[in-house]
Design brief:
Rossmann fold, 28% strand
Length: 126
């Protein structure tokens, strides 16, 4: 069985759209090829799946509220954060994200490893 792609892991299906906010250098290229007829969206309000890359707790607290107001109820949101063992310095981890999500009426619902430096956590409204 073939290894799952990043698009598979984040539930980007054929014909759907993806918005990626603040991606690290070279990340968009790593998504290719996208599933059949899937496309990159210019903004979160146009997307079926949104990936928000944050590097610090401050970035999370500043950026998530701005992204949240543009999401449709059916939009899948992934908050992507640096791994503690990765090359990107950070003050957040999965446990901090779970607590943050709960404080903001979200639920951390599933995680996956993007690569050696980044992980992603799905945020769902409570």
């Amino acid at each position: 069985m073939a290894e799952k792609t990043i698009c598979d892991k984040m539930l980007l299906k054929p014909g759907r759209s993806l918005a990626v906010i603040n991606p690290p250098s070279g990340y968009l290229e790593s998504l290719l090829p996208l599933p059949d007829f899937a496309r990159l969206a210019d903004s979160p309000q146009e997307a079926d799946v949104v990936q928000l890359f944050i590097r610090t707790y401050t970035e999370l607290d500043e950026q998530l509220p701005h992204v949240k107001i543009h999401l449709r109820p059916s939009t899948i949101l992934w908050v992507c954060f640096p791994k503690q063992t990765g090359k990107v310095r950070t003050d957040i981890n999965g446990e901090i994200l779970y607590v943050y999500a709960a404080q903001k009426n979200w639920k951390g619902n599933g995680m996956f490893s993007i690569n050696s430096d980044w992980s992603a956590m799905r945020f769902k409204p409570v």
